[in-house]
Amino acid sequence: MTPTLVRRHLPSSSSPGSMTRARDWAEIQERMLVPLYEAVYERLEVGAGTRLLSLGCGSGLALLMAAGRGASVRGVDTDGRRLALARERLLPEDAREDGAHLGHGGPESVVDPGGTAFNLITAFDPLYCAGGSARGMAGALARAAGLAEHGAPVVLAGWGPQERCAASGALRVAARLADPMCAPARWRPSGRDDLEELAQRAGLRPDGSGRVACPYGYADMGSAVRGMLSTGAFDAAARATDEEQVTKELTEALHPYLRRDGTVWMPNVFRYLIARVQRTP
Fold first, then answer.
1. Is residue 127 exposed (0-12), middle (13-18) or buried (19+ Cβ within 10 Å)?
2. How far is it, in rounded angstroms, from Cα 237 to Cα 32?
3. What segments bear the compositional bias annotation Basic residues (predicted)?
4. Is residue 198 within 8 Å of residue 130, measured between CB atoms?
5. Residue ranges per structural domain of the chain
6. Under 8 Å between Cβ of 89 and 64
7. Is residue 25 very low, low, confident or very high in pLDDT (cuts 50, 70, 90)?
8. Cβ atoms of residues 64 and 85 within 8 Å
9. Which of 73, 112, 251, 276 has its CA 20 to 30 A from that of 226?
10. Interatomic CA distance for residues 222 and 212, integer angstroms
11. DSSP string for 36-65
12. CA 58, 275, 195: angle at the middle one, nearest 5?
């Protein structure tokens, strides 16, 4: 099935700088989560019968991989610039009308009245999940679950143990520079039961989990800095200080992972939770 999607205009707040960040995400950073996508899709046997809804779909790489397995895919994100890049990836010249759809905002934006219920929901990007309040994310998950079949898996992802995530040092820089501004957006290590608690708040039933190695590998220090900045984790820090200060301190935090050949290599472990949609009898 050839993916297609609904065209929507970019928010008026889009700027050349923010579009550059979105392209850095698509071209440098998003691929770091490929092992996570592959592990989940393999475990859940994603294929021709899968009707997937992705929350925080970013620039569409996970959707593209699912569509390549034969799944029918839809995705939503709050970043219109990343969605524009997802359209470039998923909308060929000869697009048909029965494939992928993208929406800006919540899960309701990609639902057709009377359409078939989803049988898989994913929220892969841990920074997307952490960007809002736990209550807000739980609400989005609950609304998405209302569009899915009873028993459908809902996949949540987050950071693994802090001592196994080399990126945690760089993310602590973002938290320190942002303080006290935008405190809700500050990064903190994932707690052992964070994903389970989020699932339960959304009315979902936890049903298994796993860990996946997702190393961050970059061709050089410049690419590493651009990739990390593209995550959005440093936006509050840049507002609280300035771009130059953030870049300087981020480069220092990444220096221990600079190898002799000039590449940057940061081992990380991500954790995912599989929860199930429950229907009240």
1. middle
2. 23
3. 1-10
4. no
5. 16-165+188-217+267-276
6. yes
7. very high
8. no
9. 73
10. 26
11. HHHHHHHHTT-STT-EEEEET-TTSHHHHH
12. 70
Match domain 16-165+188-217+267-276 to its CATH number in 1.10.600.10, 3.40.50.150, 3.20.20.70, 3.40.50.620. 3.40.50.150
* C-alpha to C-alpha distance for 236 and 181, rounded to whole angstroms: 7
d(CA 279, CA 217) in angstroms, rounded, equals 42
Which residue spans within 61-164 are E strands per DSSP? 72-77, 101-104, 120-123, 153-159
* Neighbouring C-beta atoms of residue 133, cutoff 10 Å: 10
C-alpha to C-alpha distance for 229 and 251, rounded to whole angstroms = 11
Rg of the chain over Cα atoms, rounded to whole angstroms, equals: 18
Return the sign of the alpha-carbon dihedral for residues 54, 91, 81, 78: negative
Q: Which of 19, 28, 39, 99 is nearest to 269 (CA)?
A: 39
What is the DSSP-derived secondary structure letter of residue 148? B
Residue in 67, 64, 55 with CA at minimum distance from that of residue 26: 64
List pLDDT tens digits, range 82-116: 999 998 888 764 444 444 589 988 888 888 777 78
Tokens of 269: 């472990």
User: What whole-number distance in Å separates Cα of residue 129 and Cα of residue 135?
Assistant: 11
